[in-house]
Design brief:
The chain is α+β, with helices and mostly antiparallel strands and 729 residues long.
């Protein structure tokens, strides 16, 4: 993230001339507007909260000293950014405003004093406040009429937000109820809160992004915002978004006269509310709750960036009202950046599932924000050298790199993984040497390369191992991918079984070919019988071996996808399978296409939907000798089948099938995998080209669409009757 482009020691506002104030005001307003658009509209923040808050405080200070500079539409008075043109607009009946920030205990005390002064209360007259965690997510307003959810809108610019109703309806009822049936729910009820992702769910989403060769999200807030603001609601549905309710918009009759009482009612209505919300009566109480929440921050499982204080009595809130962009009756007490200084004792390279070489700093143990930190990320080799993705310096001093032995600043700032944020070059040991980033994988000695982006012509920031399936650091995760539902889909061989066999000394599975020799090796002496091992019985072993045997002739597209070639997802695997018809043809093309002038390269480049990034990934994969040896061993065990050969004997071959409603004997993913194994094309919606609709309980509009087009409809039992049982395919 970039820092604001203001002087390191800005001129005090009181000393600015009118001309200097006008120039700096224009510059700051442009920066704030750009940051608002990046954060609220594009879900891609360009600076951290501290830098943004510093910009806005400086802007407000200049406007207070020079009132003539403050226009009606000043950046200091705006909330968020205009809603994206990609979505329809919803105008908020009650504006969704922002909060002023406090950064010190003294600022909180000043806020409480201002409230007392405005209300004409003495300092010793208690006024109750609520204190609750400030969730770092995407603000959302949910409108219910007669108890039914009718609209969902993002904050947008505070006055008008984006219509994300369809997407919000895909979020689980336990997070966003679709109906509110309690007696105290008014005819119109706008419930507001924050959509967010938990840390574990965020990690899972990024893992799936990596598997598909897609860009990873920078943090949970970006991932949550990007997930909710999708034009394809099925993407939103696939992501475990969560929602905390804590505020409201239009609501003619409130269920309680206090902030805490209304939030308690939200809990009754079916919303999740934050259990750390507390009622406080003094500044000391507020600060104590802040310290408590701060101490639990690392263990919450989701991101927060402060604590919000609100006057509890709603009649007092109404009297206090609003000023500019924020209410007088609330403030956000932000957490400070969590920094500590320590010594970098070593740099180690970790190899991820996709082959990414990630540098990790091993640190002399140091406490950062109440947590003992011994490791921190160094991002990539350019960051170690002291440059950003554009080749520009990110540190002062000469040279600007990071070396073993350096004294470094470690920053958490709420991040799940601490990072090395700065280096003190003045404390660098005389014998410290520049770090040489490896060009060979430390796990398998394959070449580690930085891909060239075909569009920009620049190197990718991450260096990756080209060893693929033979790299032990990637092996377990790649084996899991190989047998996964959308790849070979071997029943009974899940993550736990893969981990067991990979570590088992008697029946090791180190590469895909080993899966298909398990039965023969199990029968050989002096190896122990698998059925004698804990967790395996004779019947389960027989079923496992049968399932493995059943996958010796996998569909070509699933086989290609299962190899885990970078950038080759399900869609590209199918494109390649249909184009080349056999794996031998694809393999030959991948080898020959390493020559940019070859006919094979030109043919690959010409395939509709296969871009230059995919072509480079294919040539890298097939050009690695280790991968060729592994493929030879694998192809001695399996024979990938052209798509037409797989489909020929199936009653649904070539047909377009749609699944709707709840399925009881299999999940939707399992149904899709089965249908595709049988040669069917699975669609997400019904059209005149649909051949068959499989409808379970709860089927809705798709049934009407099927009737309109005269499409055959069967239930789940009828599906199994048609294709020959739940193990078909």
């Amino acid at each position: 993230m970039s820092e604001p482009e203001t002087p390191s020691e800005p001129i005090p506002v009181a000393e600015l001339t009118a001309r200097e104030a006008r120039a700096e005001h224009k510059h700051l307003a442009a920066q704030v507007e750009a940051a608002d658009i990046a954060y609220h509209q594009n879900d891609a923040p360009v600076m951290d909260d501290a830098a943004y808050d510093a910009l806005r405080r400086r802007l407000v200070a200049i406007e207070e000293a020079h009132p003539q500079l403050k226009a009606k539409a000043s950046a200091s008075a705006r909330v968020g950014a205009k809603p994206s043109a990609r979505f329809a607009k919803i105008r908020h009946r009650v504006p969704m405003l922002s909060l002023d920030n406090a950064f010190t205990d003294e600022a909180v005390a000043e806020f409480v004093q201002r409230v007392h002064r405005f209300l004409g209360r003495k300092d010793d007259e208690p006024i109750a406040f609520t204190a609750e965690p400030k969730i770092d997510g995407l603000s959302l307003s949910l409108r219910y009429e007669q108890g039914a959810l009718v609209h969902a809108a993002t904050r947008g610019d505070g006055e008008e937000g984006e219509d994300v109703t369809v997407n919000a309806r895909t979020i689980a009822d336990s997070e966003i109820p679709k109906t509110l049936a309690w007696d105290d729910v008014p005819e119109v009820a706008e419930v507001r809160g924050e959509v967010y992702l938990g840390h574990a769910d965020f990690a899972g989403i990024n893992e799936r992004q990596r598997e598909k060769g897609l860009a990873e999200f920078a943090n949970p807030r970006n991932a949550a915002a990007g997930s909710l603001r999708q034009l394809d609601a099925s993407i939103t549905a696939s992501r475990p978004l969560r929602f905390f309710a804590y505020a409201w918009g239009e609501m003619p009759v409130l269920p309680a006269p206090t902030q805490s009482g209304v939030v308690e009612a939200f809990g009754r209505w079916g919303f999740r509310t934050n259990p750390l919300m507390a009622r406080c009566e003094t500044v000391d109480d507020l600060i104590a709750q802040y310290r408590l929440i701060e101490s639990r921050r690392a263990s919450l499982g989701y991101d927060i960036d402060g604590v919000v204080y609100k006057v509890d009595d709603l009649s007092l809130q109404a009297r206090l009202g609003f000023v500019s962009r924020a209410p007088r009756w609330a403030i956000a007490h932000k957490f400070p950046a969590e920094l500590a200084t320590t010594v970098l004792e070593a740099i180690e390279i970790q190899v991820g599932r996709t082959g990414a070489l990630s540098p990790v700093a091993r640190l002399r143990p140091v406490t950062v924000g109440g947590v003992v930190v011994t490791n921190a990320t160094l991002h990539n080799e350019d960051y170690i050298r002291g440059f950003d993705s554009k080749g520009e310096r990110i540190r002062e001093g000469e040279p600007p790199d990071i070396r073993v032995g350096d004294t470094v600043t470690v920053k958490r700032a709420g991040d799940v993984i601490p990072r090395v944020a700065a280096v003190d070059l003045g404390k660098r040991p005389a014998d410290a040497k520049p770090y040489a980033f490896p060009t060979l994988c430390p796990a398998c000695s394959s070449h580690a390369t930085r891909e060239i982006n075909p569009r920009s012509g620049k190197e990718d920031a991450v260096r990756r191992c080209t060893g693929g399936l033979i790299c032990p650091a990637q092996a377990v995760e790649r084996l899991k991918h190989f047998v996964s539902r959308d790849a070979l889909d071997i029943d009974g061989l899940g993550d736990k079984q893969i981990e067991f066999f990979h570590a088992d000394p008697d029946l090791p599975v180190k590469e895909p070919a080993d899966i298909f020799t398990l039965a023969a090796r199990d029968a050989a002496e002096p190896l122990k019988k698998l059925k004698a091992k804990e967790g395996f019985g004779a019947q389960s072993v027989a079923k496992l071996f049968e399932a493995i045997e059943d996958r010796r002739k996998p569909p070509l597209n699933r086989f290609i996808f299962g190899l885990g070639i970078r950038h080759i997802g399900e869609t590209n695997a199918r494109l390649l399978a249909r184009h080349y018809g056999s794996f031998e043809a694809l393999r030959a093309a991948g080898l020959a296409a390493a020559d940019p002038a070859s006919p094979e390269r030109q043919e690959l480049d010409a395939i509709d939907g296969v871009g230059p990034t995919v072509v480079e990934a294919l040539t890298d994969f097939f050009g690695e000798p280790h991968n060729q040896e592994l493929l030879d061993r694998l192809l001695a065990q399996v024979t990938p089948q052209p798509l037409e050969a797989v489909a020929s004997a199936s009653p649904v071959a070539g047909k377009i099938v749609v699944f709707t409603g709840a399925l009881e004997r299999m999940t939707r993913d399992e149904a899709k995998a089965m249908a595709e194994r049988l040669g069917a094309k699975v669609a997400g919606s019904v059209s005149s080209k649909t051949d068959l609709l499989v409808a379970g309980p709860g089927a809705g509009s798709k049934l009407k669409d099927a009737a309109k087009h005269g499409i055959e409809v069967i239930d789940e039992a009828g599906w199994f009757d048609l294709v020959g049982g739940p193990t078909a395919g």
